[in-house]
Amino acid sequence: MSYSVAYTTGTYTAGAVKAALLALLEGISPVEVSVRLPQGGVAEIPVRSVSIHEGVARCSVVKKSVENEDLTHNLEIVATVSLREDGGIVIKAGEGIGVVRKRGLPVPPGSPAINPTPRRMIIETIRELTKRGVDVVISAPGGKEIAGRTWNPRLGIEGGISIIGTTGMMRPKSAPAFKESILAQLRVVEEEGAEELIITPGNISEQAVLTLFPHKVTGEMVLQAGDFLGFSLREASKRVGRIIVAGHPAKLAKLIEGYFQTHYSRSPHAKKMVLQFLKKRVDSKRFGALMELPTVDGIIQALKKDSLLRPFDELAELIEVKIKDYIGRTRPVPILLFDMERALIGLSRSARLWIGKDST
Questions:
Q1: Rounded distance, CA 111 to CA 90, Å?
Q2: Looking at the domain assignment, is residue 252 inside a domain?
Q3: Both 286 and 216 in a single domain?
Q4: What confidence tens digit (pLDDT) does each residue in 271-302 have?
Q5: pLDDT tens-digit profile of 190-232?
Q6: Same structural domain for residues 275 and 330?
Q7: Is residue 257 a contact partner of residue 342, using CB atoms and an 8 Å limit?
Q8: Does 150 lie in the same domain as 45?
Q9: Which of 170, 197, 226 is the last residue of a domain?
Q10: Cβ neighbours of 184 (radius 10 Å)
Q11: Residue from 339, 350, 291 nearest 316 by CA
Q12: Which of 21, 97, 102, 304 is deepest in the core (most CB within 10 A)?
């Protein structure tokens, strides 16, 4: 099945860094650069402008999106690079790039809001070209204004946007084209007479089920629903006997309040829902500390550290009830919950039976 594919802000950022470094090291002004993607393949990133002045190179690229509601569509991303003496790589936030101020995010407080995968892409791109030390400043003119319309301020990210992405590619998860890709995969599933389908919100949960259950799950059995969980569940229920749902509570917890379209513009942040669920399940002192954490995954990691993940089994059970009511199904819909590290943190009772049955 083919998707309309564009690239994440992380991929565009790595492209800007590569073009700037090529200009600095080789004195050229590339019109396009190739960036290696985390899961294989390359992205060809057009270069908007390149300049060099007194040992500093500056390159800009323009982010293009496949999502109608992507606030970063047509955003300019700028990389400014220079060489340093110690051989290290230092990445800083410039204009329009956020800085993390709270714990519980994938990068520590005080760091640029550049997630681990894009950071790794930037470093690997630099090391393709040189072993010398490099200073990098990433900027996004207009990024501060855009960030004010996202969840970044509530997450404790100040001053601009986040550079994100786990695969380097983005699919149109908020676009009608993505619904058609879901239907196309479901038609294939129905034609082949598949008995089971695993629905996930995205790449992290798909990789989790493929890694943890290689004896029973293949890629053909997994459907990435993106933000269209409700649409995918309704359509899958018409075609497949057994549906399993696997994902992160930051997406799936929204279902307990009836939000089956999970795009941030169509549903509230899941943190409030998760905290409301946990309020009667953890002691008041710990709950107060959890309220200060900016993300659902931060809450998960804090409870995980103290071996207090049992409430997520209950959460999985409640999610299953809500899904069954939503699609009018009486048979079980096993629910598996994962964290951002792809670790299993919660199972509904039917999910335990599903795992046990296939592990014997």
A1: 11
A2: yes
A3: yes
A4: 999 999 999 999 999 999 999 999 999 999 99
A5: 877 888 999 999 888 999 999 999 988 888 889 988 888 999 9
A6: yes
A7: no
A8: yes
A9: 170
A10: 13
A11: 350
A12: 97
Range of the domain at 56: 6-170
**Same domain flag for 196 and 153:** no
> Do 42 and 191 fall within a single domain?
no
Asked whether residue 302 is assigned to any structural domain, the reply reads yes
What local confidence, expressed as pLDDT, does residue 360 receive? 33
Q: Which residues of 18-36 are buried (b: 16+ CB within 10 A; e: fewer)?
A: bbbbbbbeeeeebeebebb
CA–CA dist 249, 191 (Å, integer)? 32
Q: Is residue 1 part of a domain?
A: no
Q: Predicted confidence band at 152 (pLDDT cuts at 50, 70, 90)? A: confident
Contact assessment for residue 4 and residue 173, using Cβ atoms and an 8 Å cutoff:
no
Amino acid (one-letter) located at 324: K
Residue 112: φ, ψ to 5°: -60, 145
- Tokens read off for 108: 């520590």
- Cα Dmax for the chain: 70
- Do 200 and 300 sit in the same domain of this protein? yes
Distances (CA, A) of 97 to 174, 241, 311: 24, 46, 36
Q: Are residues 138 and 11 in the same domain?
A: yes
Domain end (from 170, 205, 226):
170
Mean pLDDT of the chain: 89
DSSP output for 82-136: EEESSS-EEEEE-TEE-EE-SSSSSS-TTSBSB-HHHHHHHHHHHHHH-SSEEEE
- The long-range contacts involving 126-132, CB below 8 angstroms and separated by at least 24 positions, are 126/17, 126/18, 126/21, 126/89, 128/18, 128/36, 129/18, 129/21, 129/22, 129/25, 130/21, 130/25, 131/87, 132/83, 132/84, 132/87
Q: Are 163 and 10 in contact (CB under 8 A)?
A: yes
CA 71 – CA 333 distance, rounded (Å)? 34
CATH number at residue 74: 3.30.2110.10
Work out how many domains the chain is built from and give that number. Answer: 2
